[in-house]
Write a structure and sequence with these properties.
This protein is 18% helix and 55% strand. With 137 residues, it is an alpha+beta fold. It has one domain: Sandwich (Immunoglobulin-like). The strands form 2 sheets. The chain has a 4-stranded antiparallel β-sheet, with no helix packed on it. The radius of gyration is 21 Å and the shape is elongated. The N and C termini lie far apart (52 Å).
Amino acid sequence: MRKSLAAGTGLLAILTTVAGTAQAASTAYPTAPYEAPYGATYTKGTITFYNRAAMVDGVQRALETSGCRQTIAKSYSGSKLLDTTYSQVTCYSKVEEVHLYVNADVVGGATSVRVSLNNVAPNGTVTELAWHSVPRP
């Protein structure tokens, strides 16, 4: 009887520790919303700030009449640019997912992330239309 009681108590301690660790891991990294609209087109979503990177997850929208759109994410430490990442180009009345990993290889990670909505012309020229600079929470 003692052996099974000890085993049950040990199992309960392990499950409690695992559950507590999983909960702590899911809430450990700060997040913040972003939105950069231009007319009826936009890029919007959430930025997760990690220790040495940031993840930009969201959507971008283009219209038949608006041309093509692209999301660009830039990480900063203070005013120093750390990294720039580009999404796919979205055209023709589509809404597409955006997942951009931006390096921030400095102690403490990025202090801010700047997300911009850009027009991509047929000749490849990229023009910034709107942006949202998001500080680390």
